Amino acid sequence: MTGLFEQGLIAILALFFFAPGPAPDCEAGYQKLKDEYQKLRDGGGLALADGRRLQAEFRAFADQNPSCSRADDALYMAGMIGGRAFRQGGDRSDLERSIAAFKLLAANYPESNLADDALYHSGEIQLVLGDREKARAAFGAAMMVPGGDMAAKAREQLDRLADAAPPAVSPAPAAGGTASVTPVAPAPKPGATVASAAGPPPKVVARFLGIRYWSNKEYTRVVIDLDREVPYDQPHLLKPDPALGTPPRLYVDFRGAEVSPAISAATPEPGCYALPIGDGLL
Question: Structural domain of residue 123, as residue ranges?
Fold first, then answer.
C-alpha cells in the first residue's frame, strides 16, 4: 500500500510541475501595441512607415491569438490604421489590407460589437476604390448584424448609392456642383472639334479636378470632373503597340483646359493624372 501511495503521489506531483500553465496574458500584448500607437499618434503624428508597421503588427497579433478576447480589437485597429496610411501615401494596397482585416473580423467574430463597424468601414473603402457593388454588399451586411449600431448609417449609404446610380445616357454631375464633360449632339465625325457656342475658347477655360468611375460586369463608366464646361475633341482609340508595350488607349483632348495645382502636386509627371481602375475592362 505504501508503495502504491508513493507512486500516486509522485504522479500527482509530476502533473503539478509539468502540466502547462495558463496561456500568456494576450491583453498585455494588445495593450502594448495600442499604447505604442497612441504614443506615436499623440506625439506629433503617426508617420506612414510607423502606421504600416503597426497595421502589420496588429494583424499578426490577431492571427497568432485568434482566441484572445482582443483579437477583434486588433483586427479593427489594423483596418483603421490602413485608412490613415492611404490618406498619407495614396497606396491602394493600404486599403486592401484594411478590407482584409475588417472582413476577417466580421467573419470570425460575428458576436463582436465591432463586427458591424468593420462591415460599414469596408463599404466606405470600397467606395474609395470605386467598387459600388461591393460597397453595397458591405453596407447591406452591416445592416444585418444583430444588435449593431451602424444600421442607420448603412441605410443612408445604400440610399445614396441608389440616388447616385449612373444615368442611362449622360454622365453623373460632378461633386460639389461642378460640371462634367458632356457630348454635344449631333456628334461630328471622328477627329472633328466640338465647337463652343460662345466661339473659340480662351487660352485656359477650365481646370481638371479629377476622375471618378464605377463598374459592373458589363461596363465601366468614367466621369471627368472639371470646374466648368469645356470644348473637347472627339475621342479616338489608339491600337496596342507591342513594340512599346502599350495596351489599347482611348484619348479625349480637352481644349483650353489645364490640370489643377492640387492634381499636379500629387502627380509625378507634369500635366498627367494616373487612375488605376483595373476592373478587367479599363
Answer: 24-163
- Any residues with CB less than 8 A from the CB of 189 and at least 6 apart, and which? 234
**CATH number of the domain residue 100 falls in:** 1.25.40.10
Confirm if 206 and 257 have CB atoms less than 8 A apart: yes
User: Above 60 in pLDDT, residue 249?
Assistant: yes
CA dist 177 → 84, 108, 136, 156, 243 (Å): 28, 42, 24, 21, 43
Distance CA 83, CA 106 (A): 17
Q: Residue 224: CA atoms inside 13 Å, Cβ hemisphere, count?
A: 20
Q: What are the grid coordinates assigned to 32, written together?
A: 502594448
Number of folded domains in the chain? 2
Residue 210 host element (H or E): strand 206-215
- Beta strands 249-251 and 236-238, pairing class: antiparallel
User: Is 62 found in the same domain as 136?
Assistant: yes
Q: Region 136-145: what's the mean pLDDT?
A: 90
Please tell me whether residues 39 and 138 are part of one structural domain. yes
Q: Residue 258: its pLDDT value, please?
A: 75
Instruction: Give 190-205 pLDDT, tens digit per residue.
Output: 444 444 444 454 555 6
126 shares a domain with 50: yes
Q: Which residues pair with 232 in a beta bridge?
A: 254
Regarding whether 181 and 76 lie in a shared domain, the answer is no
Is residue 28 predicted with pLDDT exceeding 90?
Answer: yes
Domain end, chosen from 133, 163, 193, is at: 163
Domain presence at residue 8: no
Q: Is the CB of residue 153 less than 8 Å from the CB of residue 122?
A: no
